UniProtKB/TrEMBL annotation:
NAD(+) binds at residues 54-73, 136-139, 245-247, 271-273, 289. Its cofactor is Zn(2+). CDD domains: SIRT5_Af1_CobB. Belongs to the sirtuin family. Class III subfamily. The active site is at H154 (proton acceptor). The lineage of its organism: Eukaryota, Metazoa, Chordata, Craniata, Vertebrata. Substrate binds at Y98, R101. One of its GO terms (cellular component) is nucleus. In contrast to class I sirtuins, class III sirtuins have only weak deacetylase activity. Difference in substrate specificity is probably due to a larger hydrophobic pocket with 2 residues (Tyr-98 and Arg-101) that bind to malonylated and succinylated substrates and define the specificity. Zn(2+) binds at C162, C165, C203, C208. This is NAD-dependent protein deacylase sirtuin-5, mitochondrial. Keywords: Cytoplasm, Metal-binding, Mitochondrion, NAD, Nucleus, Transferase, Transit peptide, Zinc. It comes from Oryzias melastigma (Marine medaka).
Length: 305
């Protein structure tokens, strides 16, 4: 399985692009269809559906990504702050950034794409059929929409990990600690709060008290091997794959769908733009996924209950 070679989070480089092109070279190239009725034929029969989701789904809920043009928090973008080096250099600044992102999520809601996926999982589950979400998003909007089977490739904004004892825990506190209250403003002229490290979020395991970090996968870090192997199992066994709102430029997610397509399994892309992989997919539905996905995943006439 090729995924093992791409277990580290990074924006794709030219060498990797060449390898992906070689992998994709093994797949027959044809213009993807936007025939919803034809997609629905596959959907009506599928027993095991994998749904890969990325930033585009969250963007429709107004969740900022801090990437690309205009995507700044103060003077920085995600790739400047979402690294182990940035955290060890300036844990206060990185915690301000994540505190801001956690607090922003209190004002955001799942959109019709999240809801259509959750509703589809529940409905198909009653028919003995399976839907698994594999997401690059860390905002937990799939969970809040009601999805149950979720593999979070990049972790969660609402989990912490202790640097001393390694304990991981869900954490929905607002603010996450007293010192971060009202900190994290995104404006470029905001000064760092320079919170002493002992006042940043600390481990609550008995006798520990170590510094906590967000349990997200930072640039340059490896993906969780358990999450990755469960994702591989899902992708190896799915009979329909949806790629929703992901630009296919961050790997290993960029590898997933082409690999499923190479098995001959239909892949349907729902996105605002053509991505480098689009030509390898059977279907491409253009537009906001909050509009395209509910129609695609609605109850099929074949469904018994
Ligand atoms: Zn600890």
């Amino acid at each position: 399985m090729i995924l093992r070679q791409f277990t580290c989070r990074a924006v794709i480089n030219s060498c990797t692009q060449a390898r992906i092109r070689r992998l994709r070279g093994s797949v027959e190239m044809a213009k993807p269809s936007s025939d919803l009725a034809a997609f629905r034929e596959f959907f009506g029969k599928a027993k095991n559906i994998a749904i890969l989701t990325g930033a585009g789904v969250s963007a429709e809920s107004g969740v900022p990504t801090f990437r690309g043009a205009g995507g700044f928090w103060r003077k920085w973008q995600a790739q400047d702050l979402a690294t182990p080096e940035a955290f060890s250099r300036n844990p206060s600044r990185v915690w301000e950034f994540y505190h801001y992102r956690r607090e922003v999520m209190l004002t955001k809601e799942p959109n019709p794409a999240h809801k259509a996926i959750a509703e589809c999982e529940e409905r198909l589950g009653k028919q003995g059929r399976k839907v698994t979400v594999i997401t690059q998003n860390i905002d937990e909007l799939h969970r809040r929409a009601g999805s149950k089977t979720i593999l979070e490739l990049h972790g969660s904004l609402f989990k912490t990990r202790c640097l001393s004892c390694g304990h991981e825990a869900a954490n929905y506190k607002s603010p996450i600690c007293d010192a971060l209250k009202d900190k994290g403003a995104p404006d470029p002229d905001t000064h760092d709060a320079q919170i002493p490290v002992e006042q940043l979020p600390r481990c609550e395991q008995a006798g520990c008290g170590g510094l906590l970090r967000p349990a997200v996968v930072w640039f340059g870090e490896s993906l969780d091997s358990g999450v990755l192997s469960r994702s591989e199992q899902v992708l190896d066994s799915c009979d329909l794959c949806l790629v929703v709102g992901t630009s296919s430029v961050v790997y290993p997610a960029a590898m997933f769908a082409p690999q499923v397509a190479a098995r001959g399994v239909p892949v349907a892309e729902f996105n605002m733009e053509n991505t480098p992989a689009t030509m390898r997919f059977k279907f491409h539905f253009h537009g906001p996924c909050g509009t395209t996905l509910p129609a695609a995943l609605a109850r099929h006439e074949n469904e018994s209950n």
